[in-house]
Design goal:
alpha+beta; Enolase-like, domain 1; 3 domains
Length: 275
Amino acid sequence: MKPAPFDFVRAAHVEEVASLLGEEGDAARVLAGGQSLLPMLSMRLAQPAVVVDISRIEALEMIRQDGGAITVPAAARQAALLNLPGLTETHPLLAMALPWIGHPQTRARGTVCGSLAHADPSAELPLCLIALQGSVTLRSSRGTRKVGAADFFQGMMTTVCADDEMIEEVLFPARHQDAGYAFREFARRDGDFAIVACAAVVMPESIELTVGGVDDIPVRRQWGRLEGSALDDALNEMAWSLNARDDQHANARLRRDLVRSMGRDVIEEARACSD
């Protein structure tokens, strides 16, 4: 199919984007990498009156590091974050998860913030943002506001971003120096969205597990340093608490089994890294 007709604006600066979104509201869509938006336009799942291209705004391209934290602006590519010097040391979970996103060609075009804005519950970056307890800065003609990861995702492909707002940047906090990190996912084919993905953060006094691909948004749990059957019981409770469903990719039983088995695997892997 071909997209429905729309006006195209190549924005020169962030203020222009905010002004256009303020004028057009839900009739406008922001284009950065296009890996989510362009297929939706082609299938007419999205029919905006105006598409605002931000891909050539230099201020939205440069990834910044400050005190161990990483700030990724709206036009920064996934490949740029993956290739950031020292990422494995500063943000090991991101270094583990980013290679699972699509293929090199899609990571070269897709943006970090675009993936978050799309809010697919099976995508790797929303899971990482919740697991790392990061935050999103939203910009509009009214100003900016910062939203924590726990409040940003509202449901399947739904966020708190208002019609006149854009994601200006996302912050991934500095790693905990005494923590271990691990990430795994299960998919039908290389480059597919995850059927289930798990990220673990293990610290001296706690275990955190974030699961994507099962419920409408990635879900994070925190426990004490559970061992043996106590950990199995916690994982089983989490597996049953998620809104697992049958679809063309997998049934609910498989998803719950993966939460239990893969959840334990990533926790043990992260535990080994933290010891």
